[in-house]
Amino acid sequence: MSLDPDSFRAALGRFATGVTVVTCTDADGGDHGMTVSAFCSVSLHPPLVLVCVAHSASMYDAFINTSAFAINVLAAAQEPLARRFADLGDQRFLGIGFTRGECGAAILEDVLAVLECRHVAQHVIGDHTIVIGEVERAVIQDKKPLVYYRGGFAQIER
Predict the structure, then answer these.
(1) Per-domain residue ranges for the chain?
(2) Considering 36, 114, 117, 137, which has the largest number of Cβ atoms within 10 A of its Cβ?
């Protein structure tokens, strides 16, 4: 029995997720970033997370070949950043504020949290690659999160 893609997508859309922008640099030092909601923790000891990246993603090659990356967890007011990094194009970083993390990846300004990771494993499955990173540094701020639910952005009132 195989589930049709529309039903699968509709069911998964009922699962609210946080919104992140994953960043890395390529071998030439170029910055890459994309909006990712397929992100979760894997282990506390050691501190591991995973990110799923589509084989069709514009930064796929850079991301699977990088030794380190950053996960920028977006705050409620950062929907424009989520949309910007979800769009195709190579000017995603133009005109936005960011600093360089210890891992070398771009750290976006005013995010809810940042996890700087060392790339430790990857697994190709279906039309995605699961990339596992060991978190080497984390920084948090006390803000409200941006959430993705049923195909759109939402905010949690807290």
Answers:
(1) 5-150
(2) 117
Q: What is the DSSP string of 86-131?
A: HS-SS-TTTT--EEE-TTSSEEETT-SEEEEEEEEEEEEETTEEEE
d(CA 123, CA 120): 11
pTM exceeds 0.70: yes
Rounded to the nearest 5 degrees, what angle is found at the Cα of 114, between the Cα atoms of 19 and 32?
75
Question: What does the block give as tokens for 151?
Answer: 């195909």
CA angle 63, 85, 152 (to 5 degrees): 120
Percent share of the chain, pLDDT over 70: 97
158 pLDDT band, cuts 50/70/90, is low
* CB burial string 111-121: b at 16+ within 10 A, e below: bbbbbbbebee
Query: CA 43, CA 103: separation in Å to the nearest integer?
Result: 20
If one counts every other C-beta atom within 10 angstroms of the C-beta of residue 85, the result is: 26
Backbone angles phi, psi at 150, to 5 degrees: 50, 45
Residue 50 to residues 37, 60, 66, 141, 146: CA-CA distances in angstroms?
Answer: 11, 15, 14, 21, 19
